[in-house]
Structure formats: C-alpha cells, structure tokens
Amino acid sequence: MTSYERRGALQIAQELCCLVEQDILPSLSVSADVVWQGLADLVERCGPINKTLLARREDLQLRLDSWHKDHRGAFDPDVYMRFLCDIGYLVPEGADFSIATTNLDAEVSILAGPQLVVPVDNARYALNAANARWGSLFDALYGSDVIAGKVASGGYDSDRGAQVIAWATDFLDQYIPLAEASHGDVLEYIVDETAEPAALTVALKGGTSDRLRYPEGFRARCQDGGRLTLLFCHHGLHLELVIDRSHPVGAENLSGVCDVILESALTAIMDCEDSVAAVDAEDKVRVYQNWLGLMKGDLTADVQKGGKTIERRLNRDRLYQGVCGEDLRLPGRSLMLVRNVGHLMTTDAVLDEKGNEIPEGILDALITSLCALHDRGANSRTGSIYIVKPKMHGPEEAAFTNDLFDQVEDILNLPRHTIKVGVMDEERHTTVNLKECIRAVKDRIFFINTGFLDRTGDEIHSVMEAGPMVRKNAMKGEAWIDAYERWNVDIGLSVGMQGRAQIGKGMWAMPDEMAQMMASKGDHLLAGASCAWVPSPTAATLHATHYHTHDVAALQKQLIRRPRAALQDLLTLPIMSETTVSDAEIAEELANNCQGILGYVVRWIDQGVGCSKVPDIDHRGLMEDRATLRISSQHIANWLHHDICTGPQVEKTLRRMALVVDQQNKTDPLYQPMGPDFTGVAFQAARDLIFKGRDQPNGYTEPLLHARRREAKAQQI
Fold first, then answer.
1. Of 116, 465, 646, 698, whose CB count within 10 A is highest?
2. What is the torsional sign of CA 79, 80, 81, 84?
3. Is residue 683 marked as binding?
4. pLDDT for res 65
5. Where in the chain is the domain with CATH 2.170.170.11?
6. Which residues are within 8 A (CB) of 216 and not within 5 positions of it... i.e. 6 or more apart?
7. Per the CATH hierarchy, to which homologous superfamily does domain 51-133+267-570 belong?
8. 285 a known binding residue?
9. Which residues are catalytic?
C-alpha cells in the first residue's frame, strides 16, 4: 500500500518524496517547493489537455471503425483520403521548412552509428549500454556466429582466434588501408615522433616498409608500458588498434595486434517505457533512481563473473596524445537519451487534489529532466537533455509535448529548447502527418525513427473493421510497410535532418543471430538511417562495421533527390484478398502469436521483467518488449472479430502454448508455471490481451498489463 505525503495540492508517494528531496535536489539550485508547485501547475494546466487529446484519439477511432464497416469489401482509396481529411485525421501539409534545433551533440547531429535501447530499471543493462560506446571487435567475432563453428572448450581457441584475426585484418585493409601491403603482412607499427604531425609507418615481412594510404586517418596514440594503442578515424567513427605482444592474442599475431576496438553505440536510449514494467510508485522510483545515477555518474551494479563479484560502473573518457602532440579526449560512454512514457497512462506515484492519479508522461517529463540537471557535461557536452517521446498521435499531441517541455524548462529555469525531443513514428496518425508533427517541435527535435512492431499493432487496430489482416509475417511484404519506411526517411530529409538530427530504424531482435544481422542490417543504412537499434553491446560493435562500409551522409544526399513515397501506398489496407485460410495456417498463426504473448507476459506479470531474451516457438531467443504483445494480441483479436478463428480455438492454443512456455522456462528458479490449472494472473493477463484487445485504446497493452501486474504484486506481499 502506497503511503503519501502532502505537498501543496498534491499527494506525493513517500518513495518519490525521498528521492526528489534527499537524492536529486541537494547540490541543485532548485528547491523542493519549486518542484512540487511546478508539478501541481503542470497537472492543472496540462492534465485537462492530455485528457482531451485522448478523447480525440477515441473519437477518431470510432469514426474509422464506422467508415470501415460501411465500406468493407468496397475500398476506394480516393474516397478514403477525402474521408480522412474531412474528419481531421489527415491535416493539410504546410509550407516547406527546416528544423531549427540548436546545441545538439555530434552523436545525434553529425555522426552515424548504432543505437542501444535498454530498460533503465535494470542497472546492469543500463551500465552495459552506456559503456557500449567502445567494443572489442575481436571479442564480438570470437563469441558470435559471425565466425562459423563453435568455440573449443578448455581456454583460448587459437584456431578460432586466427579466423578472428583474419576477419579483422580484412576489415582494416578495407577501411584503414596501407598504401600497398596488407595489415596481415605487418611486423611492426611504428610512430614517427619526429614528423609534424606524427606519422605512422609499418615494417613488413621481407624487410620492406609501407605507410597508410590515407595518412589523415591516423589521429592519436597512447603508450602504456608495452601496450601501444593507435587511434584512427573513418566516416567520423573512431577505432583503436591495440598492440601488446605480452597478450595471449598479440603473442600469436605477427604484428602484435591483440585487439581492434570500435567506436560502437554512439547513443543509448535509457527506457522508462516499453521495456520496463513500472506499474506503481515503487517501480517508478527505481526507474528514476537509475536514470539519476547515470546522470550523476555514480550508478553501479554487482555482476557475477567467473565465480567472483565485480562492481560495474560507468567508463571514463579515453585519453590520447594527438598527432600534433596535443592532448586528445574522447567520450568513454554513449550519449544517453531517456525515453519517457506516452500520453495514455496515469501513475499512483502522485495524486492530484481530488485523489486521482496524474498523467504519467507529465511526471516523467519533469523528473527525468530534473535528474538530468546533474549532468555536468559528462553526458551532453552541449548541455542538452534528450527525451524520446513515444506513441504520440498526430500534430496536436506533438504540439502538446512541445508546450509541456516549455513549461518544464520554465520550472527548472532552463533556457528555451534545452530539452530536446525524439519523435517516435510508430502510430498511424503520426506517420501520415509526420511533416506537421515535426513542424510542431521543429525547434527541439533531434530524432525520428520507425518501429515495425508498434506501428503494425496500431495499423491493425486502426483498420480493425476493414477485414481480416494478412498473416503477421506477411505484413512486411505489404505495400504500406515499404511506404512507411521510405516515407519516414523522405520526410526527415525534406525538413533538413541530414547532418542535423537522427533518422533511425528499428530493432534487430535476435541477439544470438549475429551472422544474419551482419548480412541484412546494413540495409538500414542504405535506406537512409543514421542510426539503427541493436539488442546488445556485441551487436552494436558488429553493426558498427556497417557504418564503415557505408557513408550515410553520402547516401542521404542521394536519397533526398528521389520522389517521396506515396501517401496512397501508405494508406493501403493490409487485409487478406481472400478470407479463406487453411486450418493448418490458422493453427500455425495462433500458435506463433500465443506462444510469443505468453513467453513475454509471464515474466512481465510474475517477475516485473519488461525486456528480456524470450524463446520463440522455435526456441530462438528474441529480445522482446511490449510492442511484441501489441502486434500479436491485435492480430488474434482481428481474426477473432472476422471469424477466421474461434474463441475455443484460441483458448485451446493458449493452454497448449502455456505448457510449451513452462517447459522453456523450467530452469528459471523464479519461474511460476502457468499449467496445468491455468488460473494464474499471468495466464489471465494473456487472455485479456487477446479477448479484450479490440476494446483497448489504440490496441495498447499497458492498461491490462498494469492492472494484472498490480494484482500479482498484491498476491506476492
């Protein structure tokens, strides 16, 4: 039971009071009275607008439902477009403009590279992500399936190590090439300190020598005893060549190179939303505590490794001697962004004067910004605060977020537009009005992206009444999804985001399938993305190689000249051309969706785990968050609604798949089996998501999940 303390017109959960007044505010020039009165003012001014916007969402959905019912089987795209304009779903596109955001760090404005997204309530994950700015290419190759075969047991596998060295040598030959020879022929790397600037030469087998083909790529060096680190730069990304003949790997390498360290995850989203299970004041405070620790730089986590406990903390900056003799410092950590929640949910961490929960997004905006005041340039060197805002529906909601951030800046006495915003293009109403959404935040925007899962979940719910959806895996072949991915980049480039803000693409969800990722994720760059999501530090390091292969800035210059994706394609309905589906196809689709829902929900409800590697129906580990539930539950709800399957079929499949999930989790000591009685809260939550899915606002899973998680927590007391 949450206990509260009154602060003016508000009731603040004791945990949150303590966090703000004892942990956040000391050493800041902001008083508790200012914070609590500011929050009260936000609730009074913004709360009613938030409520009105949610009502507008509901009204638009009712209008869409009615139109699709009336025109089922007789879809006319021109009539549809006129209808969307008439109800204000499609807004008129205004004159051309360019974004005007200032004081952006290079990681989001100029540089292109991988982006990690992690649940900030897990300190170990958060620290791993922040420290993933630099990663060992040798380790990433050695431990992944990019190098074929399995690692031999019993210590270092020298045969596999030789394959790693060969792969890395080929990488160096392509992107840090020597004038004539291969890095595989190098006996020694020699820094000529007498030259101005210092020059790099190499001694080769056979007694000859060589130099870099592009000498300007050599930036600095660092000597630490017998260990020499050489720093290079290519496409704006740094990489280190580490030479140490006393190291087991260096001893077996002709040149003494023991590792290649790549600048990897330039940015990391510390997530308060889809990848966390924060349903009450206790959970929210844990989220805020970890974000505060990241901003202060004092977050730690104990990690068990090799039978020992290791304290993990944030990496320090990296220091070098530049080629002109100057000191050179590079960031040791990813630039950290924080993803707030959307406009939908409320939180019991604060109650208003009538005892009602306040909008959670309003609380996030103030408290995450307040925590960020502790950043003294260790994160943002420009003094900016980066908030990613998810699940906004259209320009009105983007404008509301802009006004909310204005007011937070006023409360905290920050210059206007200190708080930057990342607009996640994951709702249909935002996609079709993306240019106007960006216009509403043009002075603070730093990021747009696409996300297949949430966007597909919203697509299904938006056109629920139009007919039965194509199978989930077939969605990627539909016209709307290709148009969506192109449209996002086209709009971003048209408003001047090239070289000024991030254009992102979505997650690679299979952390164990790195060879497959390496073969396909480079396509995100070819599509015009300056960043793309990866599930782990290892994946970030491997994906970083794509940014050496492709020059994103040059690609974007080419793409900006192509015709914009067609809005009509974007509004093509992903419904079956024929409603006849075989019994085998129905059974396969239900099994896949039900297993995915149950595998994720059972950890969310019973253990409060919002993001983890969940085995799919084929036992492959997938990094899952709530977006998985949204698409899968909405898909089954759609098929139920259109009689493609029946309620008893779904019930039977849920029970059968619950036993599969129980078996997959049998080695987890914290796991609570769903079978054989199927009466537990987690199983009931999965049922709710499907059978109540059609009635959920925009198909979101949060209302049902939060209610069931609170129920489970009450049972655990």
1. 116
2. positive
3. no
4. 98
5. 134-263
6. none
7. Malate synthase, domain 3 (3.20.20.360)
8. no
9. 339, 625
Is 453 among the annotated ligand-binding positions? yes
Q: Residue 655: is its pLDDT beyond 80?
A: yes
Question: Is 577 a known ligand-binding residue?
Answer: no
What does the pLDDT read at residue 578?
75
Class assignment of domain 583-716? Answer: mainly alpha
Q: What is the mean pLDDT of residues 476-502?
A: 97
Residue owning tokens 């480079």: 522
Cite the residue boundaries of each domain of the chain with CATH code 3.20.20.360. 51-133+267-570
User: Pick from 259, 260, 271, 377: which is nearest to 317 by CA?
Assistant: 377
pLDDT interval class at 375 (50, 70, 90): very high
124 is in an annotated binding site: yes
Predicted pLDDT of residue 579? 67
- On whether 694 is known to bind a ligand per the annotation, the reply is no
Q: pLDDT averaged over the chain?
A: 97
- Does the global pTM surpass 0.85? yes
Q: Report the CATH fold assignment for 134-263.
A: Malate synthase G - maily-beta sub-domain (2.170.170)
Does 370 have pLDDT greater than 80? yes
Average pLDDT of span 581-610: 96
Q: What six digits make up the tokens of 353?
A: 């004067």
pLDDT tens string 671-716 = 999 999 999 999 999 999 999 999 999 999 999 999 999 999 999 9
Q: Is 454 annotated as a binding residue?
A: yes
Angstrom distances, CA of residue 354 to CA of 14, 44, 285, 351, 365: 18, 12, 23, 8, 22
Phi, psi of 488 (to 5 degrees): -60, -45
- Which amino acid is it at 357? E
**CA distance linking residue 655 with residue 646, whole number of Å:** 15
